Amino acid sequence: MPTFTHDGATLHYEEHGSGFPVLLLAPGGLRSTVAAWQRAPWNPVDELAPLYRVLAMDQRNAGGGSSGPVSGSDGWDTYTADQLAVLDHAGVERAHVLGMCIGGAFIANLLRTAPDRVAAAVALQPIGLSGNRERFHEMVQDWGEERGIPAEDLAGFRDNLYGGDDVLWSVSDADVERFRNPILVLMGDDEFHPQVASRTLARLAPHATLLETWKDPDSIPMAQMAVAEFLTSHTPA
User: Which residue among 25, 46, 78, 93 is least enclosed by CB atoms within 10 Å?
Assistant: First the structure.
């Protein structure tokens, strides 16, 4: 499983299957690692590897194989640069991207900064702002204290991620209106993944589709089929 250095960070990802590439951005907040997919309603590594070249990465300092410095100037763009570096290291010019939880915010910033690198995107229960800012701040504080990050750097990093007033955290509503990539949104419905985040992304992005029910056992097969059909329909010949 590849590990390489990029801009002072060590980045690790797993590769499974073959075909058109799919970059996976795992749930778990700042603990977004490949292992977190095992706790998801279904594991996209298992579902997609028979048909695609799956690149599943650990985000830096999440507790997996990726690590790097943290400063008060770091934020969403830091993660986006890491994700693009993984694509570059794998020799991938363009890929589908599937992300869950914080992966939705990662996807949004990828679509803002590097839309030409994304063929289509699937966002499962994206995180969002809805009277829950303090919960996100608490999460960052706990994560930073575990890693011994200096308080000043941690505060700046926290505010760069979760200090703004944009519903989707990483991008503005105006940014979403400019998205031109096809997006499938599987709706969230809890404190960290409020409905308003999924509905905002699906409502404002010109080529987005919202799937409201997907996590309960009876709905999982339908959701898996919807994701499979969506990716197939947007995979280059």
Answer: 93
Look at residue 49 and tell me whether its pLDDT is greater than 90.
yes
What is residue 27's predicted lDDT score, i.e. its pLDDT? 98
Report, as an integer, the average pLDDT of 35-45: 95
Cβ(228)–Cβ(216) below 8 Å = no
Closest CA to 57 of 66, 44, 47: 66
Structure tokens at 7: 């801009």
Query: Is residue 10 within 8 Å of 65, Cβ to Cβ?
Result: yes
- Measure the CA–CA gap between 120 and 22, rounded to whole angstroms: 9
**CB-count exposure of residue 12 (10 Å: 0-12, 13-18, 19+):** buried
Strands, DSSP E only, in the chain?
Answer: 3-6, 9-16, 21-25, 53-58, 95-100, 118-124, 183-186, 208-211
Q: How far apart are CA 45 and CA 43, in angstroms?
A: 5
Model confidence, pTM: 0.97
Of 143, 185, 182, the C-alpha closest to 167 is 185
Q: Show the tokens assigned to 179.
A: 């998205």
User: pLDDT, tens digit, for every residue of 209-231?
Assistant: 999 999 999 999 999 999 999 99
3-state secondary structure (DSSP) of residue 49: coil
What are residue 14's DSSP bridge partners?
56
Measured over the CA atoms of residue 56, residue 61, residue 67 and residue 73, the dihedral's sign is positive
- Reported residue count of the chain is 237
